[in-house]
Amino acid sequence: MELDVASLWILIAAALVLLMTPALGLFYGGMTRATGVVNMMLMSFSAAAITAIVWVLWGYSVSAGEPAIAGIIGNPISDFALHATPESGLLAAGFAGTFAMISVAIISGAIADRSRFAPWLMFVPLWVTLVYAPVAFWVWGGGMLSADGFLGKIFGEAIDFAGGAVVHTNAGVAALVLALKLGQRHNFHDRPQPHNTPLVMLGAGLLWFGWFGFNAGAATTIEQAGLIWVNTLAAPGAAVLGWIMVEKMRGARPSSLGVASGLVSGLVAITPSCADIAPWAAMLLGVLAGAGSAWAVNLKWKLGYDDSLDVVGVHLVSGIIGTLFLGFFAMPTAESAGGLFYGGGTGQLVAQFMALLVVIVFSAAMTWVIATVIEKISPWRVPAEIEIAGIDATEHNESGYQLMTK
């Protein structure tokens, strides 16, 4: 079979999404202390490496295989190591695997500067297998939240084109659970600042670049691809303005970290809705997401949970905003009556809310169980003295910077 244009685009899009996980390592690495940058980057790279193996062996089967266990998951045995997937289907499996990589890597930002590496290596395959893959099956693989699933038949099918619930809400909830599980850093109340803002900005720029593959990779027509491209351009731009607006209202000056975080919040928010809202609505969504996440990141100081790199404030909050936004502003299609403001009634909003509720409850419960089991095997936290000195030297025998003086 010759390589057609559509398949070629998926190849390119998958490569773009693959780039996002190392980009996330740069983004997170710059936000940590200088003595934890190696550990932070390795958490992203190891997430990608381990997920690649899990996805080929059984992860893709769980997320997209024949229904098993009363349709709760795909059968991991029926297509073990993708032996039953035709060559034409391997491209879809590979593309889906890059989504799993970035999803679990996102979680690592919540436990920066205090997590041992060994528990993280155990967490990645368990979370991808027991949390991410089942949720992906429910929404994208014909599971219970799809049109043919039992919740989809009751409440209506949720729209999640590229992962507002499956990726960002799912990972954001898991990040909150791990942050609570590990507790606060020793210097939490000092509000530690990023050690390398240029690294943060570079990571954010590469994430935006890769996100065009993330959102548009599954486009089926040139018209849909064009809409997705413009929305993925407009929403993060508007989100930066929304974030800056909140910073100004607080009396603070616009910051590079705020611009980078606002950009990512807009990208997160447009992910579920990129193919189903108009460009003007994408800009409105961006402003709401940027402002909402800018407000939400301060909650950790008030409530006392130590989400080190604002995974909860950015990914969970903007993921929820973007997913619910469809209930109001989704354009009518042949399959959907559209959102509330398009005359579609409350049906789509109910479907979006129920999908979020199911994902949040499931992700929180399963992540807590996984984290607790791992804690019994290998404690998550490094000793206090190592955390204060920095974990790169003890966990990896490396340093992010070799500063030589004569």
UniProtKB/TrEMBL annotation:
<dbReference type="InterPro" id="IPR029020">
    <property type="entry name" value="Ammonium/urea_transptr"/>
</dbReference>
<protein>
    <recommendedName>
        <fullName>Ammonium transporter</fullName>
    </recommendedName>
</protein>
<feature type="transmembrane region" description="Helical">
    <location>
        <begin position="40"/>
        <end position="58"/>
    </location>
</feature>
<dbReference type="GO" id="GO:0008519">
    <property type="term" value="F:ammonium channel activity"/>
</dbReference>
<feature type="domain" description="Ammonium transporter AmtB-like">
    <location>
        <begin position="8"/>
        <end position="401"/>
    </location>
</feature>
<feature type="transmembrane region" description="Helical">
    <location>
        <begin position="161"/>
        <end position="183"/>
    </location>
</feature>
<keyword id="KW-0813">Transport</keyword>
<feature type="transmembrane region" description="Helical">
    <location>
        <begin position="6"/>
        <end position="28"/>
    </location>
</feature>
<dbReference type="InterPro" id="IPR002229">
    <property type="entry name" value="RhesusRHD"/>
</dbReference>
<comment type="similarity">
    <text>Belongs to the ammonia transporter channel (TC 1.A.11.2) family.</text>
</comment>
<feature type="transmembrane region" description="Helical">
    <location>
        <begin position="253"/>
        <end position="271"/>
    </location>
</feature>
<feature type="transmembrane region" description="Helical">
    <location>
        <begin position="195"/>
        <end position="214"/>
    </location>
</feature>
<feature type="transmembrane region" description="Helical">
    <location>
        <begin position="226"/>
        <end position="246"/>
    </location>
</feature>
<feature type="transmembrane region" description="Helical">
    <location>
        <begin position="277"/>
        <end position="297"/>
    </location>
</feature>
<dbReference type="InterPro" id="IPR024041">
    <property type="entry name" value="NH4_transpt_AmtB-like_dom"/>
</dbReference>
<keyword id="KW-0924">Ammonia transport</keyword>
<keyword id="KW-0472">Membrane</keyword>
<dbReference type="GO" id="GO:0005886">
    <property type="term" value="C:plasma membrane"/>
</dbReference>
<feature type="transmembrane region" description="Helical">
    <location>
        <begin position="309"/>
        <end position="329"/>
    </location>
</feature>
<dbReference type="Pfam" id="PF00909">
    <property type="entry name" value="Ammonium_transp"/>
</dbReference>
<feature type="transmembrane region" description="Helical">
    <location>
        <begin position="90"/>
        <end position="112"/>
    </location>
</feature>
<feature type="transmembrane region" description="Helical">
    <location>
        <begin position="119"/>
        <end position="141"/>
    </location>
</feature>
<keyword id="KW-0812">Transmembrane</keyword>
<keyword id="KW-1133">Transmembrane helix</keyword>
<feature type="transmembrane region" description="Helical">
    <location>
        <begin position="349"/>
        <end position="371"/>
    </location>
</feature>
<dbReference type="InterPro" id="IPR001905">
    <property type="entry name" value="Ammonium_transpt"/>
</dbReference>
